[in-house]
Amino acid sequence: MLTLKPTPGNPVPPGATLVPVRTADGLTLRAAYWRPLTRTEKGTVCLLQGRAEFIEKYYEPIGELRRRGFHVVAFDWRGQGESSRQVEDAHKGHVARFDDYRLDMAAVAETVLVPSTPEPHFGLAHSMGGAIAFTGALEGWLPFERLVTVAPMLSIRMVKYPLAASLLSRSLHRLGLGKAYIPFGSAVSIATKPFKGNRLSGDPVRYARNAAAAAEVGAGAVGDPTIAWLASAFRAMRRLRDLRVAPRIDMPVLVVGAGADPVCGLPATERFAGRLRAGHLIVLPGSRHEILTETDAIRADFWAAFDAFIPGHTRVESAGSRRSVSEPA
């Protein structure tokens, strides 16, 4: 049975509708959607998580989006949160190949996004979700009119020698070790590690809140990735960094970089954004990897950029009628 777990200081946003989503290859994903908290409706924002994330980490942004007049769709990618696993150890962050995430997005769009929420549909993607979204925008299957990516995963700074790590992960994968943890990997979630020296957020209150949520969801927070995930991630990032790729994306995109990101390399993000045909880049100085769980000042800058980029359609509901008013793009 699917659940949404509350923790002190992080209650479940009221009005959630939980939906089990079946993918084309037979997995079940946890998805949920919410209506806006305003009379005016601006469309729908779908959240695309980063690796090792889960819906509970997004309760605060869900509320902020609803207060802005958006319907919100959130879901767990395969291999994390309460979605199905393809390995016995639920703590392993595993996917056989990044192309499988396309099946997740297609299933969520078909089961939740299209039948249950109004257009226009927008994407808000973090880290790994950004890499998946860029791939979908490139290949034409991303179901959004506009996309906001936050600290997108185009390179991994946590890996000291990325070329060697890429070659090693591919070699180990070919030897049949794809479902094993990366070398020296463990079941410990990055979200539960001490605040001091953490890579994710400079806000101790939000960091502690997310650590409590990670402890509550247990294996849903997952630990380190598998060799298959890492090999697939390197392949996806290498493709996106090809100089010919970004100019082929014609979807309007706002790229928000974290100025002090120790997880995903900012230079790769800047180079990619600079080649987008309809792209806009802002960099938030001092922000670590998880911009949406950063300090109030950094988050205020993020939401100002988001509000300027995501206009949408405003629908005003009255007792007996509904009218549409187009806002400027």
From TrEMBL:
Q: Where is the Serine aminopeptidase S33 domain?
A: 41-296
Pfam families given in the database record: Hydrolase_4 (PF12146)
Please name the InterPro entries in this protein's record: AB_hydrolase_fold, Hydrolase_4, MAG_DAG_Lipase
Top-level division of the source organism's lineage: Bacteria
> What is the protein named?
Lysophospholipase L2
Q: Which species is listed as the source? A: Methylobacterium thuringiense
